[in-house]
Amino acid sequence: MPDVYISRQPLVNRQSKIIATRLTLHFDDGASTKDAAKTLDALTEFWPLGEKLVFISCGNAPCDAELLDWQIPENATIEVDSASFVEPEAAILIDALKAANASLCLVFDTQAKAALSSGVSFRFIAFDAQRFSPAQLKSFAAQTQPYGIGVAINVRDSQGFQDCLDAGVNAAASWFFKHPTKAPAKALSPGQAQIVRVLNLVRKNADIKEIEAALKQDVALSYKLLRYINSAGFGLSCEVQSFRHAVTILGYNKLNKWLSLLLATASKDPMAPALMHTALTRARLMEVLAQGLVDRQEYDNLFITGAFSMLDALLGVDMDKVLESMSLPEPICDALLGNGGVYGPFLDLAKSSEGEDGKELAEQVGMLGLSADQFNRAQMQALAFADTMEL
């Protein structure tokens, strides 16, 4: 079966939270929507179930009836181009959409009238932010309000995101928040520096009393740490009640992995929830992809690399400034500073999974000797993990 690779974008709402994920299908040479349906069907076991919706886009390929030939999860929404409703085989698609009874999103264009009058019900109407001016977007969003909830796609930057919200859409698919607009700070804040001190103590296997004393200087840190450890994503069979209890159950190495997440929570950025979700997805994706490719004891370090890969955006400090005060293994620092190393290819693939270049994504997957199926499954597992964490 020809390969289909899946990349992702978050759908961010007015409260700067990720409320859905938009998956884009990238078709390798010879791949069809029938292959895409088989690819999606193979992900059933790993599908991220829960409150967050998952939009499915065929990218540059047209959506046809064959895409619907899979067990569509309840939280999935299929994107359909308006142009598909004026194609010669439009009647077949319309019948298939009605029969599937799935949540649908119409990608709006000048031919949308045919789609809106087809008798097919749409839950969402998506507007390509690169095709319409803010004024046009505002007009179209108002006109289509009775037909579905307005969302935007292909938003490039923070100004574009704000323009879409001002035009009346409810959320936008974009990575604009990965690129801070403020100038980076020269050093960590006192709160951030305190977390680094605790992290360094854990990495040095300091006495539990010493680490507990450092944590007690900021009660919020202890609370956040226990909340993370007790999240569904961690999968413990009992509730961890204290830091000492956590050390007993997890050991220092595992605890370091989870304590690392605290540094990201020190962000005051209004986009922190979206950044944290992205960091967690990268962390889990890298950890899963590495299984069988590196020594088991390195899995946690790959998780930490992914979790720390957004620190410059989260903390508003250049990455080199963040790392100079931390006692991290050289492979983690190399990857975070763009110097390659053992973990570099895993981080590069995690970043490519957030892009729109299907060829680059396929190349990065191939460089690690992985199949499209292995990568797609890992991505679904990572999304499901990030969704279960209490941010």
Automatic annotation (TrEMBL):
InterPro entries (UniProt xref): dGMP_Pdiesterase_EAL/HD-GYP (IPR014408), HDOD (IPR013976), RNase_Y/CdgJ (IPR052340)
Chain ranges of the HDOD domain: 188-374
Pfam families assigned to the protein according to its UniProt record, in alphabetical order: HDOD (PF08668)
Organism superkingdom: Bacteria
Protein name (database record): Putative signal transduction protein
Species, as recorded: Candidatus Propionivibrio aalborgensis
